[in-house]
Design goal:
single chain, mainly beta, endopeptidase fold (from Nostoc punctiforme), SH3 type barrels, 23 strands, 242 residues, 3 domains, six-stranded antiparallel beta sheet
């Protein structure tokens, strides 16, 4: 088992930086290596089970149990316990950190010194996954992304659930098996199309990462449905309540 030692690491379909990004590993997440050659490791992400290729330079062999997770949308790890110190990495929500020490308001980890207010101890999750998803509004769309600097529709859902202490599969077709079907919609329900998912922020509005806006946006569900129907993608295929 290896552990990710960069703020994010692409998990790709083939051992090449030009290959399609299927998923991402965030700092501190585990990766089970099944094969390794030419600077690439083939294996499986421990957190969500996704299989693919990861650059071996982004992995370390020694694994540590996390004590904290990044609670802020994104935050810097600094080279010293000071806001004036050089940043050594920009870390996204749900990155996993192991505390090694403390100095004032800063916690020391292998990823640098972090402002304690931007972290949360493991076992103290958010209480509102819809509110978490809304904090990503404006983040760019990135195929296969899970980081706050860019993510896709199912990545947004997964990140919101992870922050709220709930397991969640990676792809929208897998997420469509979560919960129970509903007819009367309310905040927190999931809306599915073929290859797409959104979260209801109310009975009439959704938050989702989408390639039309190339960003995470909040918009009326009716507008999204009209757009997908107009381009031939059809009506939603399911509404689910978690």
């Amino acid at each position: 088992m290896r552990q990710t030692n960069t703020p994010s690491s692409a998990l790709r379909r083939a051992p090449s930086r030009d290959a399609e990004q299927l998923d991402q590993l965030l700092f501190g997440e585990l990766f089970e290596v099944l094969d390794e050659a030419d600077g690439w490791a083939f294996g499986q992400a421990k957190r969500d089970g996704y299989v693919g290729y990861v650059e071996t330079a982004t992995l370390i062999g020694q694994t540590t149990a996390p004590t904290h997770t990044v609670r802020a949308l994104r935050t810097y790890g600094f080279s010293a316990p000071s806001i004036k110190a050089a940043p050594i990495g920009l870390y996204s929500m749900n990155a996993l950190l192991t505390a090694e020490g403390k100095d004032g308001r800063f916690i020391k980890t292998a990823g640098g010194w972090f402002v304690e207010e931007h972290l949360a101890p493991i076992g103290q999750p958010e209480t509102d996954y819809v509110g978490v998803a809304q904090r990503f509004v404006g983040a760019p769309y990135q195929w296969g992304g899970r980081e706050s600097l860019g993510l896709d529709c199912s990545g947004l859902v997964q990140q919101a659930f992870y922050a709220s202490g709930q397991a969640c599969p990676r792809d929208s077709d897998q997420q469509a098996a979560m919960g129970e079907p509903v007819e009367t919609l309310r905040r927190g329900d999931l809306v599915f199309w073929r290859g797409h998912v959104a979260i209801l922020t109310s009975a009439t509005d959704i938050v989702h990462a989408n390639a039309t806006h190339m960003a995470v946006v909040i918009e009326p569900l009716a507008e999204a449905i009209a757009r997908t129907v107009a381009r031939g993608s059809g009506e939603p295929t399911a509404y689910r309540r978690i």
